[in-house]
Amino acid sequence: MFNYIVEHMEELVAELKAKGVQVLDDIAAYEYGKFVQIMDPEAGHLHLTWHTGKNAK
What would the pLDDT profile of 12-24 be if each residue is shown by its tens digit? Predict the structure, then answer.
């Protein structure tokens, strides 16, 4: 699995869904960040991460 740090997670996930990308779960939101998993075209799992506050990159 690959982990990608992204910005604007809700908008990105909506755009990926519109393009037919399989989103494996709902966006999980915590005080320290948001997380969601998607499937790439070759059936690999990708983990999208958005960090808040001091954890932001």
Answer: 999 999 999 999 9
The pTM for the full model equals: 0.80
Question: Two tokens at 5?
Answer: 């740090």
* Cα 35 from Cα 5, distance rounded (Å): 9
Q: Is 18 left (phi over 0), alpha (psi -120 to 50) or beta?
A: alpha
pLDDT at 56 over 70: no
The two tokens of residue 26 are 């709902």
Domains of the chain in sequence order: 2-55 (3.10.180.10)
Only one residue has tokens 């519109």, namely 18
